[in-house]
Every structure is written in structure tokens, then in C-alpha cells.
Amino acid sequence: MHTTPWFHATDIPNVPPKNLVQIGIGGWQAPRPGVKVGRERGTTIMTVTDCVEMGIEAAAERALEVAWDGAEAVWLSFDVDCLDAAFVPGTGWPEPGGFLPREVLKFIQLIADARPLAGIEVVECAPPYDNAEITALIATRVICDTLGCLVRAGHLPKPPGARPARGGSHDQPGDTAPDTHERGAS
Q: Cα–Cα distance between 173 and 186 in angstroms, integer?
């Protein structure tokens, strides 16, 4: 059954189900039994429609509240099939009606800016189906934007003896490096 890793994650002793947040479930393909069990076990499931109706900022804020409630660390698992099938042909579970890339990138920015992450993974990329490497591009962008936002927000430790970045912070005059969200989808 699809969402089996999510089902098994609710059995991990040091990961309370109350802190598990699944964002972007949608469409008629969503495995209703898996969603039902996830909700019964106390996880939070926000559909694409939920997120769009409440707004990406509010949805990210809610996800962060739930994930960080009493937690020492948060892991971000990004499943490319939360995006609309038009943008991720290289996945095993294409979903019409998913998120737009700019929505996902905004979500990632908000999550990575808020607090340090223990780690990130990108899953459900299927290279044999990836026409023109479109899915690989968005997967790479998610990783790069996450890392960039973590660096910008000061959430990653600096190596001993590291010099400050040239041009200062992204808010200082004279900085020519574009913000990750300023480079967003056009």
C-alpha cells in the first residue's frame, strides 16, 4: 500500500505520531486506508486543497507548530509526487492537481527559515520516467533552496575559522546574490 513508510513511521518509538505532518495528499489516487490509519494514530494530514485554501504561509506555520511541538529535531522528507504531474513526470505516483513548483518552493523556504532541520531527503524520483530530467531539476532545486535558506537563516554551523560571506547578509546594500525566493518560479 502506498504511504506504507508513513504507516511504519508511526511505530518508531522516538517519533511520536503527533509530530508527523504529511502535506500534499490529494486526488482520487490517495490511499484512503493509509490516510485513515494515519489520522487514527494522531498524525496531521493536510491535503493540497487544505493548503491552498488556508494559504501556503498558514499551512507552513501549522506544519511547523505540529512538527516542533516538544521535538528536539525535525526531519524533512520531500516527496516529489506532491507536485502536479505536469511538473514531475519522473515519479512512480504522478498526481494531477498537485502543488505548483512556486508553492512548494515557498513552503520549503518557510520551513527551512524557521528552525534548523536535522536533515532532508527527496523521495519518489524515478529517472526512467523523467522526461528531459524535469523531475531531477525540481528535486535539485528543493535541496539547494533548503540548504540555501538554512545557511541564510544561520541554522547551519560555520566551520572553525570561517570568514563571513562577501557582501554581508542578504538584507545589506550592495549584496548582488539573489534571495532563493527572489529566484522563484516565473
A: 24
